[in-house]
Amino acid sequence: QTRIALVVKSLGNGFFDAANKGAQEAAAELGDVEVIYTGPTAATAEAQIEVINSLIAQQVDAIAISANDPDALVPALQKAMERGIKVISWDSGVAPEGRQLHLNPSETALIGETIIKLAADYLPDGGDVAILSASSTATNQNAWIEAAKAVLPEKFPNINLVSVVYGDDDSVKSTDEAKGLIASYPDLKAIIAPTTVGVVAAAQVVTDQNLIGKINVTGLALPSEFKQFIDNGASQAVALWNPIDLGYAAVMLANDLVKGGEAKPGAVLSMGRMGELTLDDTNSGAMAAPFTFDKSNIEEFSKIY
Amino acid sequence: MSRLLKHREVFLFLAILLVLVLVTARFPRFAQPGNLLTIFNDTSILMMLALGQMAVILTRSIDLSMAANLALTGMIVAMTNAAFPGVPVPLLMAMCVVVGAGLGAFNGVLVWKLNIPPIVVTLGTLTIYRGLVFVISGGAWVNAAQMSPDFINLQRAVFLGLPLLSWFAIVTALLFWVVMTRTPLGRSLYAIGVNPTASVYTGINVGRTKFYAFVISGAVAGLCGYLWISRYVIASVEVAGGYELTIIAACVIGGVSIAGGIGSVAGVLLGAIFLGVINNALPVINISPFWQMAISGTAILLAVVLNARGERRQGRVILKKAEAV
Amino acid sequence: MKPKTMTDPILTLSGISKSFPGVRALHDVSLELYAGEVTALIGENGAGKSTLVKTLTGIYQPDAGEIRVGGQRVTLPTAHSASALGITAIHQETVLFDEMTVAENIYLGHAPRGRFGLIDWRTMRAEAQETLDSMAAGIDAGIKLRELGIAKKHLVAVARALSIDAQVVIMDEPTAALSQKEIEDLYVLIELLKQDGKAILFISHKFDEIYRIADRFTVFRDGEQVGKGFIRDTSQGQIVQMMVGRAVDQIFPERTAVIGQTVLEAKGLSHPTEFEDISFFVREGEILGFYGLVGAGRSEVMQAVFGLTRTSAGTLSLDGAAIAPRSPADAVDAGIVYVPEERGKQGVITGEPIFKNVSLPSLGKTSKSGFLRMAEEFALARTYTERLDLRASSLSQNVSTLSGGNQQKVVIAKWLATLPKVIILDEPTKGIDIGSKAAVHGFMAELVAQGLSVIMVSSELPEVLGMSDRIVVMREGRVIDTLDNKGLKPETLVRLAAGIAEEQAA
Amino acid sequence: MTDTSLHRSLPNRLDNPLKSAVLSWESLLVVVVVAIFILNSFASPYFLNAWSLSDLTFNFTEKALIALAMALLIIAGEIDLSVAAIIALASTMMGLALQYGADTPTLVAVGVGIGILCGAFNGFLVTGLKLPSIVVTIGTMSLFRGIAFIILGDQSFKGYPATFSWFGQGYVWWVISFELVLFLVCALIYWVLLHRTNFGRRIFAIGNNDVAAKFSGVRVDRIKFILFCLTGLMSGIAAVLLTARLGSTRPSIAEGFELEAITMVVLGGVSILGGAGSILGVVLAALIVGLVTFGLGLLNVPGIVMTIFTGTLLIVVIALPILFRMWRQRA
Ligand SMILES: Nc1ncnc2c1ncn2[C@@H]1O[C@H](COP(=O)(O)OP(=O)(O)OP(=O)(O)O)[C@@H](O)[C@H]1O
Ligand SMILES: Nc1ncnc2c1ncn2[C@@H]1O[C@H](COP(=O)(O)OP(=O)(O)OP(=O)(O)O)[C@@H](O)[C@H]1O
Ligand SMILES: [Mg+2]
Ligand SMILES: [Mg+2]
């Protein structure tokens, strides 16, 4: 029996619950694998370390983690590896010395471009946009925002990114920040929130302040949580990868390592029904391209995740 | 004028005006009536919670569990709404008040019957209540899509130019004002804080009165549970995490003495509004959000220093009295 | 005096017992109170007087016994039920609300209600004012209680008792903090209450006032009732005999101390608001009395000498060397100690045992390089508590369970253990029974005989005259005169203290 | 009946010290510790293992270090809610020092020094300006962490030298970590300080009645100030350990530590009203909290559910003796 721990940023987040579904699916498919779904309630590094410590004590075979902090977890995860536990990160990565491989949901550059494109598609004449991110320490969000900034000048010259603010994946803070953006930038045309908490908060603010049609909210969102804002027009379209697939792939990869697979630059590992993952020189790889949801398909996907 | 200034409410009001003027100087749109009403509306929940907290602090107690109570009641009402969308919202609100009051009563009983210090009781129930949110929800969030439109929109309905949420705060404030100044219960809350021994000798049942204070703060927290959830349209374990200290900060800034017996409804409202204005003003005048925390910390410290200056007894002034004769 | 009427008592207590852990405060006591009469309750410190009061007002529940009001057997589970039955008390400690108005202090708990059952502030204020005016208290019902002096606060407590329309009014040492004038006013009030047909229970350690106003008396000793009767049929000596179980002579001790060099000298001490230009000195083996009316600022001066309050001008010198204590710790190091007036708040640490209270300022001596040595502490505590005849069950007994007089002894023991040069006693016998009083006085004589200097602040004329070598009289924050205590007439002191011109006093 | 006969030598104490020791709070806690230990070993096969037990200690040592000083502060009648914020600020300053090339001793000095400074600031506000500590430290809690946020914003400091990491990750001998050893040593020091010195005796006196203590010549303000500095110092030490353990600094570090430290103190039998408590109780309480959270962690119970257990434990352990006393009085 192989025991694989799926450690998430925080429990209760619909995104991670969906990932767990995929992980269980992978376990069922593999047969000899038990998935331990765990994580802290508050998205902090210290809480995740306590979880990791208890997993080390339980001598699990592998830890697949979506990290709250890329650096703070490194010592704890290194200790896990010293005790013979395979460690991979997925979704939100850990610094290379703290894991054996990292599974990106998608290419960072691609995500960065997608979130800008989602806004630009509905702004033919260009205009001001702002980003409402998660916590200022989130690895993945920061990487996407960097990528987005990088593509702006050449691909979207008339889009003007006026500000990046942080809502800490806390609905109140995100709401306040969204309001602040709207008050500070009267010409704001779109709010881009590459986080499922922030995007809901921003869409609610736009709805409340009767700004539907004036400000378009977009970003990364779970269809089930976000459906009503596509329906009411606060948002034209959002994107996301499939968290079920992500959880599935993470468990498959962890299982590969436990069963003898080796993570090194250039290696090709199997992700079951998701195909294969090729590792780059930092031992990370991307799963698939983000998928866009709009009026045409949200109904269907909101029933799935 | 100098007599007026002695009242910390006036002082606080001026401080708020000053912030408004300063911000408006840089950003004229800030002081528009619409924006001010928005700030008021945004602060409504904090005002109500701070009023509930004041009832407790007056009796030399403290309720650290208000935010957890809010989260638990909020989760219960959100799950109820998700499961039975047909239940009318006013009924749900009544349920919130009852559940919240019940959670407050649990604190109150421990304080009253077992004589455990309130800070210990509520430190314990703070973690218990929040843990229960996780237990009943299994950690899952209740999101906008699962809530009924009525549930979400009730507080947003506009009446006489103000959203209902603001009206809730106004009515709560009036109710508190009447209770605090015109009812035996309200006066007992003050009396206990001013002099607990004397209260016993006066025939006030100190334990039971504290119990009522906790029921009041619990009921308010419960009602705010609904208001919070329907405002931010998400119910999760982390709802209002750490907010207990913000509530206390609003009371302190509003001149409620942590030693009990001193505090007014007007002061608490202004204290909450002060925090609301600061939080709203910072993003608007483009101060990095990272400054926000340090600024509100400084505001709290300044408020305490100023309040203490006002409270300090001036001694008995034997010489002056002698001259006056 | 009105004729003796043998009507039925309004209130009867029989077989009342009450114990606290380790202490039997009341044992099988009985008491009757009659309408229109003042019954004095007399007893040493710790005899159980205040405990009885608290039992009667629903604050403590008796372990056994019964209470009858108007012949009807009653229980008093709360303070409220007692006042509903018309029993009200002015307690030993002032139990009022500083931050509230005078009117509310009078009516808290039974405020007049207006529409919707809401408190009617206007009526309350008016009625409170009426009550106060009927007492000629000269207090504005609208101001905060905090603004009143201690004596006026007592009047407010009386007004509260009146507002309840009580049948039984209990006064637990009401005059302890009052000046002579205020005491006189109180007597008038008590007379009014008597005429109103109220039964009054009056507790006091002062025999002059007992003989002045009481009709009957009841004596307690160690929680038991040991005697009762009519005041006019009993001599003071007999009552004292009942109280202590032995005869006590109330003569102040003979003092043989030789007065030596000046030890402590103050020159022109001033404080911005409380006192001005205070100069005095005290010599080896001398008792310097400080007399004045309550509120004259004597305590403030002493606390400045003790380093508790800052002075704005003036100098202090000890044995000729200038000192400037900035904290009590400095003063203690220099050899000046202070027995404060408010024993419970400032004197003893009630949550701790006797020996820890006694050793606290002497820890430097009982310890070894900062580490505690309990045996030394016990030895030290035993030495000094025994010398003061402290009554307790063990040295580890909590100070909170001692009676007032014994608590005072703990405070004095604590200071004696530091071997001070100057000991300041602020109202050292306030609220102390006659037996302990003599002990304290005897001890003061012993102290000066050993060469200490004693400063005694007192508002009791006999005590000041009986004990002091010289007397400083203070009024309204200033020194009025310093007198040699040789053939001094009491009237002289009263006149100086009250600021009455010579002709008027005569 | 109390014997009040004249001229009788007072005994040192009446009660039997052995009996009162058996009925003490600490013995109740020992029972709880043993019970939880046994429960844990039955509940999880991984519990009784040297490395597991060693890992367990990391869950509580940093908070327990703070709890030691906090206990003294609470016994003296004050409280410090800003300890976690002090950790954040101290850690940030260490990170800043690292950017300027500080070596390990300097880093430690910076962390500890900032801790003391913050404690002194609290102490000054409370004793110098005579403000209530609970409100002061609610304010400084925002202020200290706020400064960390101003300095760091969304950045982080990392790359601490290996010699520095040893403080948070190193082992002194076999499974005995440096953190554990440091905690035990500090516990011993604090035990002596509180229970065996004049300083400790004065702390109790202050907590019982600070006015009377002052009138007895105790330098109340100075002692309170020192206690705030000590609490700051322990927070600084905790900052060093935590930073070394995490290997990085973010302004959000150590969130919620203050309430956990206070829980340990209160669970340890220290009266929140001041004037009573013991270091042994606090150490046992820290152990209990560590055992409960680790034991439940082994069963993969989410952290938030663990808090239900600690919260309930807190109330139950405090309520039990009271209920027992009430029951006995009725009987
Ligand atoms: N709450 C209490 N707990 C324990 N013992 C108490 C308590 N209250 C009073 N006692 C004890 O009961 C006895 C009677 O005390 P009480 O205060 O009634 O005396 P008293 O006659 O009023 O003395 P005094 O003249 O000093 O005021 C004393 O031995 C006292 O120590
Ligand atoms: N208005 C007041 N409010 C509260 N306590 C008071 C007030 N006035 C006096 N006291 C207290 O009552 C006690 C007696 O005070 P008093 O009026 O005698 O002043 P004092 O400075 O001590 O003067 P003296 O020692 O000359 O009587 C003091 O301990 C004081 O703290
Ligand atoms: Mg008494
Ligand atoms: Mg005095």
From TrEMBL, chain B:
<feature type="transmembrane region" description="Helical">
    <location>
        <begin position="212"/>
        <end position="233"/>
    </location>
</feature>
<feature type="transmembrane region" description="Helical">
    <location>
        <begin position="35"/>
        <end position="59"/>
    </location>
</feature>
<feature type="transmembrane region" description="Helical">
    <location>
        <begin position="66"/>
        <end position="84"/>
    </location>
</feature>
<dbReference type="InterPro" id="IPR001851">
    <property type="entry name" value="ABC_transp_permease"/>
</dbReference>
<keyword id="KW-0812">Transmembrane</keyword>
<feature type="transmembrane region" description="Helical">
    <location>
        <begin position="290"/>
        <end position="308"/>
    </location>
</feature>
<keyword id="KW-1133">Transmembrane helix</keyword>
<feature type="transmembrane region" description="Helical">
    <location>
        <begin position="154"/>
        <end position="177"/>
    </location>
</feature>
<keyword id="KW-0472">Membrane</keyword>
<feature type="transmembrane region" description="Helical">
    <location>
        <begin position="90"/>
        <end position="112"/>
    </location>
</feature>
<feature type="transmembrane region" description="Helical">
    <location>
        <begin position="119"/>
        <end position="142"/>
    </location>
</feature>
<protein>
    <submittedName>
        <fullName>ABC transporter permease</fullName>
    </submittedName>
</protein>
<keyword id="KW-1003">Cell membrane</keyword>
<dbReference type="Pfam" id="PF02653">
    <property type="entry name" value="BPD_transp_2"/>
</dbReference>
<feature type="transmembrane region" description="Helical">
    <location>
        <begin position="245"/>
        <end position="278"/>
    </location>
</feature>
UniProtKB/TrEMBL annotation, chain C:
<keyword id="KW-0762">Sugar transport</keyword>
<dbReference type="InterPro" id="IPR017871">
    <property type="entry name" value="ABC_transporter-like_CS"/>
</dbReference>
<feature type="domain" description="ABC transporter">
    <location>
        <begin position="11"/>
        <end position="247"/>
    </location>
</feature>
<dbReference type="InterPro" id="IPR003439">
    <property type="entry name" value="ABC_transporter-like_ATP-bd"/>
</dbReference>
<dbReference type="InterPro" id="IPR050107">
    <property type="entry name" value="ABC_carbohydrate_import_ATPase"/>
</dbReference>
<keyword id="KW-0813">Transport</keyword>
<keyword id="KW-0547">Nucleotide-binding</keyword>
<keyword id="KW-0472">Membrane</keyword>
<keyword id="KW-0677">Repeat</keyword>
<keyword id="KW-0067">ATP-binding</keyword>
<dbReference type="Pfam" id="PF00005">
    <property type="entry name" value="ABC_tran"/>
</dbReference>
<keyword id="KW-1003">Cell membrane</keyword>
<comment type="similarity">
    <text>Belongs to the ABC transporter superfamily.</text>
</comment>
<feature type="domain" description="ABC transporter">
    <location>
        <begin position="258"/>
        <end position="501"/>
    </location>
</feature>
<dbReference type="GO" id="GO:0005524">
    <property type="term" value="F:ATP binding"/>
</dbReference>
TrEMBL record, chain D:
<dbReference type="InterPro" id="IPR001851">
    <property type="entry name" value="ABC_transp_permease"/>
</dbReference>
<feature type="transmembrane region" description="Helical">
    <location>
        <begin position="106"/>
        <end position="125"/>
    </location>
</feature>
<feature type="transmembrane region" description="Helical">
    <location>
        <begin position="172"/>
        <end position="193"/>
    </location>
</feature>
<keyword id="KW-1003">Cell membrane</keyword>
<keyword id="KW-0997">Cell inner membrane</keyword>
<keyword id="KW-0813">Transport</keyword>
<keyword id="KW-1133">Transmembrane helix</keyword>
<feature type="transmembrane region" description="Helical">
    <location>
        <begin position="21"/>
        <end position="44"/>
    </location>
</feature>
<feature type="transmembrane region" description="Helical">
    <location>
        <begin position="265"/>
        <end position="298"/>
    </location>
</feature>
<comment type="subunit">
    <text>The complex is composed of two ATP-binding proteins (LsrA), two transmembrane proteins (LsrC and LsrD) and a solute-binding protein (LsrB).</text>
</comment>
<dbReference type="Pfam" id="PF02653">
    <property type="entry name" value="BPD_transp_2"/>
</dbReference>
<feature type="transmembrane region" description="Helical">
    <location>
        <begin position="304"/>
        <end position="324"/>
    </location>
</feature>
<comment type="function">
    <text>Part of the ABC transporter complex LsrABCD involved in autoinducer 2 (AI-2) import. Probably responsible for the translocation of the substrate across the membrane.</text>
</comment>
<protein>
    <recommendedName>
        <fullName>Autoinducer 2 import system permease protein LsrD</fullName>
    </recommendedName>
</protein>
<feature type="transmembrane region" description="Helical">
    <location>
        <begin position="64"/>
        <end position="94"/>
    </location>
</feature>
